[in-house]
Structures
1.
Amino acid sequence: CEGNVMLPQYYSIVGQLPVPMRHSLTTAEFLSYGMNYYGIDLQLEVVPIQQWRRDRIFQGTWTYPSPNMPTFRTALVYPGAVMLEGTNLSEGRGTTRPFEMVGAPFIDNIKLTDTLNNMSFPGVQFIPVFFKPEFSKFSAEVCRGILVNPLDPEVFRSFEVYYELIRLIRQNYPQDFQWKQPPYEFEYQRLPIDMICGSSFIRQSIESNVAFEEIQPVIDGQVRSYVEEIGDYLL
C-alpha cells in the first residue's frame, strides 16, 4: 500500500472509499469492501485465478483501463504520478509516455535529475528528457522534463517519488509552480490536488516543504489501520 488514506469529507467522483492511493486490492476485493461499506445488497460472484499469489507482480494481458494508461509501466508510476494532475506540471499527456514523464518549460531538468538520483530512492532511475505534448498542458511547447524509470517494481514507491518531485519543483520554482484550480472532475470548489489525495494533508505538507520521511510515520499509521480494516475482504 502507498499513500495516505482518503477521508470521507473529501469523497468525490475521484474516490469514495477510505483507501490509500495504492490500495493493493484486487477488483473483487475492492468491490466486496465497497459493497459492505455502503451496505449494498448485491450478489457478487468471484472467479478465482489459478496459481495467483498476492506477493507477485501480476501483469497479465494488458488492456487500456484509460486512454492515458497505455502500458503496465504506466500503472507502476500512476499511484504517485496522478498527483501531477493537481498541478500545472505536465504529466506527459499528449506524448507516448503519459505519467512516466513530468516536466514544464521553466524547470532545469538536468539539475533536478541529479538531485533526485542522489536521493537514493529504491528501484528507480531518473533520466532527463525533452518532450513536446500534442495536447493538454503546454501543448506544442518544449518541456524540460524527467522520465521516471522503475527498475524494480518490488521496491519502487511511486507515491514517495512523485511527492518529493513535486515538493522540489515547488521549492525551486515558487513563482512558476501552481496548484491546478477547479473545476476538476465535476467539482467546482475544492482544489484538485486535495480531491486526488483525499485530504489536504499532502498539499499542506508540500507547501510547508516537509520531506516525505517526516510525514511517512503519519501515513504508515493510516495504512496499518486500513490493512486491519480490509483483512476480512482479502481472498
2.
Amino acid sequence: MMNADLGKDFSYSDYYRALFDNPKKNSVLMLDENGIILDVNRAFQLSFGYDMADLIGQNFSILFTEEDRQRELPMREVRTVLDETQSYDNNYLVNKNGVLTWVSGESVLLNSANGRKCILKIIQNIHTQKESEQSIVRLNSFNENILASIDDAVLVLDPDLNVVKANRSFVKLFNLTESFLHTFDFREFLKRFDGNGGLHAAIQSAFGPDGCAAPQELEFEDSYARLRSFEVSCGRLDGNAGQTHALLIFHDVTTKKDQERQRDDILNFVAHELRNPLTNIMLNIGWMEAQIQESSTEGFADFIDRTKRNAERLKKLVNELYKSTKLISGNYDLQTETFDLDEFVDDCMNTMRMAYPEFAIERKGMAQTALTADRDKLLQVLTNYLTNAIKYSDGNTHIDVGVVVREGWATVSVADGGKGIPANELPYIFNRFYRAEKTRNLEGLGIGLFLSRQIVEVHKGRTWVESTEGKGS
C-alpha cells in the first residue's frame, strides 16, 4: 500500500509519465476512441522497429495481421474497452519489417478532466513463451502420431498402475474405447494373466534406479477370444516436474510361438512315429548279418520282406511330413484340369473297394457336372476320408459316399458308423498332428485330415465334420 504522505508529493501525471517513458519491456500505445494512435513509448519502437512517424495518426489496425483485420479484431477490441472500460487480447503483432510477434495486451479506458476519452494499451512480447507452448503441442502431437503408427500395443502406467496413456493397438487388442480406456483395471489384468508375478516385478523394476527389466512372456485371449502370445518390455519414462511412468510394449509373438510349437510337434512325432520302423529295420539287418556270419540263409526272405515293409512305412511317413511342410510354406501349385465329378468319385470308390473288399462302400446321389480342379489332389482328399472311415470303423463295414450339387457348390461327403468323435475333440481334428484320444493306438501321424483341409481351402472350398460318439462320423 502506498504511503499517503508520499503520494501527495507526486501527481497522477508523474505516475503516467514514468510508466510510459521508462519501461524497456512493456510497450505502450495511446489511442483515441476510434483506434487512432496518439502516442507510443520508446519500448514499443525498440521492440517492433517502428518510428513515431510510422504510427502517429494511423489506425492501430496496421499492427494486426490481414486475417485479424478481416475478422474485425481491432475495432471489436476498441468497442469492448469503450463498453466495459478494459479488454485483454492475445494475438500476432506485425513488426515494421513484416515479421510476426506473438503478444499479450491489456487495454484500459481513460477519461480526461474535459471529458475526452482515450485508450491506454500495454503490450508484452510473449513470442518465446508461445513458441515453446506450440513446440510442446507439436511434440505431443508428434508423439501421439508415433504411438498411433506402432503396431505393438503400448501402455503407459503411473506408479499406482493406473493407465495414463495407451495407443490405438492396445485399445483394439482389448476392444476398448477411448472414453472407457481409463477404466481398464491393469491390476486385475495382472491377477488374471501374470501368474508368476514376473510382469509385476518388471514394472516395479522400471520405477527403480535401473529403469528397465528383462522382457516377460504372457499368454492371454484378445477381444476376439483368440489365444495370443506377447513379449512385454518394460522401461521407465521420465516426464516433466519429476513425474515417472512405466512404459510397456506388448510385442505380438503368437506366430513365432506357433511355429516353435509346430517345430516341437514335428520333432516329437518324428521321434515317436519313425522310431518303430527304424528299430525293426535295424533288428532285421542285425539278424541277417548274424546269419551271414553263420553261412545260413534260412529265413532271409521273411526278414527281407519285413525290412521292405518297414522301409515303405518309413517312406510313407516321411512323404506325409514333406507334404505337410510344403503346404504350410505355401509352395503348393495346383495342376488343374476339367473332369467329370461322378467318374472321379466312382474311380476313387472302386480303388478303395479293391483294397478293402470286406467293406461295403455305397454311393448316394449324382453330380452330373464337370469340375475344374487338381484331380490328383482332390483324389488324395477323398481317399483320406475313406481311409479314415475304414480305419475308425470299429467293426461296422458300411460306408456311404454322398454327392450333392446345389447353388454352384459340389458337396462330397463320406459317412461311417464307427467310433465317432467326442464333441470336445471335433474343433481340432483338422489340426496338424492331432490324434483323437481313442485312436492313438492306430497307425498314422495325424496329418491326413490336415492335408485334406489345406488342399480343399487352396481350391477355395471348405471342410467340416459332423459326428456322434459311438455312432459314426
